[in-house]
Amino acid sequence: MSKPAKRDRRILWAASVPMMLLALSCVYPIYFAINNALKDRKGYILDRFGLVTDPSIENFVTAWSRARFDEYFFNSVTVTAGAVLALLLVSSLAGFALAVLRFPARKLIFGVILASLMIPVQVVLVPFYQTIVALELLNTRIGLILSYTAFFLPFSTYLMTAFYAALPRELVDAARVDGAKFLQVWWYVMLPMGKPALLTLGILNTLYCWNDVLISLLVLQDERTLMVGIAALRGEYTTNVPLLSAAIVLGAAPIVLLYVIFQRKIVAGIATGAVKG
Amino acid sequence: MKTKPFLLAATAIGLVGAAAQAQELTVWDWKSGDPVTADYYDSAKAAFEAANPGATVKFVVQPHDQYYTLLGTALSSGKGPDVILLHGGAQAQTRADALLPLTAMADGFSGAEGFTANGEVIALPLTIQGFAVYYNRALYEAAGLDPNKAPSNFAELSTACEAIAAKGEVPCFALGNSQGFGGEFFISQIATSTFDDADYTAWAAGELAWTDPKVRAIADQWAAAAEAGWFYEGANSIAKFMDEYEMFMRGDAAHTVGLLSDVAHWKQFEEFHGEGGVGVFAYPNSDAELARLPFAGGIGWAASNQSAHPELALSLVEILADAERQAIFAVDTGALPANLAVDTSGLSSPALAEALALMAAAPGGMPHSILAPSVLEEWKRQSQLLLNGETDVDAAIEAMEVARNAN
Fold first, then answer.
1. pLDDT single digits (tens) B218-257
2. Which domains does chain B have, with CATH numbers?
3. How far is B78 from chain A (nearest CA, A)?
4. A235/B271 CB distance under 8 A
5. Would you tell me how many other CB atoms lie within 10 Å of the CB of residue A88?
6. Model pTM?
7. B356: how many CB neighbours lie within 10 A of its CB?
């Protein structure tokens, strides 16, 4: 083996060790959750870190039925699906308008949308809550769907604008020459072309909505979504860790599955916004 | 067809009528998500809906750490729940203006004082809260002590701790004080045996100085126990909930100061040490002849005065706190019931019997629960410094006086 090849190998090994440790730090919590979800409470207390010896799915059954995760799951699916659909529709239209149409203050509007990306949710919680109450949307699923749409729309619009702006303008011009109205251009040309970005956006927004605790906690106080249900499993003083672990696995499973299926698109989508603003 | 619009209209009217008749009560708590409590809630729901045809109840579990924040925002916006679970003491009393008076329903409850404000009972207690010392009988036997003879005074506890230390396998007390809870509980463990009514009044008003011998005893006895090596060495690094209790459950310590409510109690400990494997006593104060057991009302049910159905809300509170429901809650969770009509004879646990006997024979209050929060925080800090040997009792008392006077 030549000297440069040997040196490359050493560098590779030197880089691999910290990377492996980093990977371990990511994988270990997953192992911890699954391993302890299969233990009973006594087994967990007697040996927190050991491998489960007598695995049981009892905690999953308990979480699903007795801790009412079936209800929470339904609520999460409903609000996530509703919000993601609304986000895709509105952001696609807004992105089309901002990237393709020419109208006064277009850049200013885009700038305002970009600026709103920089405002943390916590800063606007009080006026947001007052608005929700005033609109009689408190404790309604539609209220939560609209809230998610509002909070995640700036990023979605930014992403779609960037994506549409990168498409050749000739496509729009050709459709217009063929007599298509703007909405037809959006429907027949831009929407099909924007599928990769929409898919990415759908996945990212699903992650945001599904994993949200704060907005759901505030808006849907009389129902509960899955993540708030998981938070509620942490008791006043004590936590049934095996049950909580089972709930976490149940809550994370759909998203992990989604991520595994669409991981290439997610990575590609993150790069989408970086192309052009 | 002309019948179709008619049918649609009739259906719509029916739906509107049904909606108008439906009376759904919303209950907020932080317990109903716990599978252990499922039978209690199911029973209350069934009893309420049977007693009030057409009415339904929905239990909504809230994360405990956000509970009072959410409740505050909901009540201030007029969108609060009909029935609310509250802690006794300040958490209930500061919300008295939002609650319906329940005095007429409050006969036969222990711990109702903690749910009383402006002369009215504002919540019906569900459980008792208090602190008892639980000990591991097997470790007593191993140390050559009589496992059936719980220490009843300071000298006997000292003898027990010396024997356990001589054996050298486990510390005398499991202790978690990383958040200061060990020190916080110690206030009530010590002061409850010496405080009289006048002391409680002065203490609550912040007028009882830490230089008073009855108060100074808290710091003295805490430091003395630490110096004698009674406590687990790493106490300031571990949490009382649940590291300390799990340590006791594993048999890694001879004693722990546990609760009388629905966690860290006789039932959980007996799961690990077997029925009869755990004994109970009140922590003795070296300055008092009788060791009193500190306890008060734990959690209780209140009805919101914002409820659109106040009669139904009151009916539900009554059912949630009645003897039948509290018996279910007590058996399933191990919490001591506040309703005195609950028959606990069906519970065979010797540890529970000992706790109930202590409650009857040597009842005490919970001084820590009426201490000003800033003073309590300072004591938590001082308790950690005393454990670490970073301060002495005189300096700690001086710091406590500064905190008391600043409040």
1. 999 999 999 999 999 999 999 998 899 999 999 999 999 9
2. 3-127+297-349 (3.40.190.10), 129-296+352-406 (3.40.190.10)
3. 9
4. no
5. 20
6. 0.79
7. 17
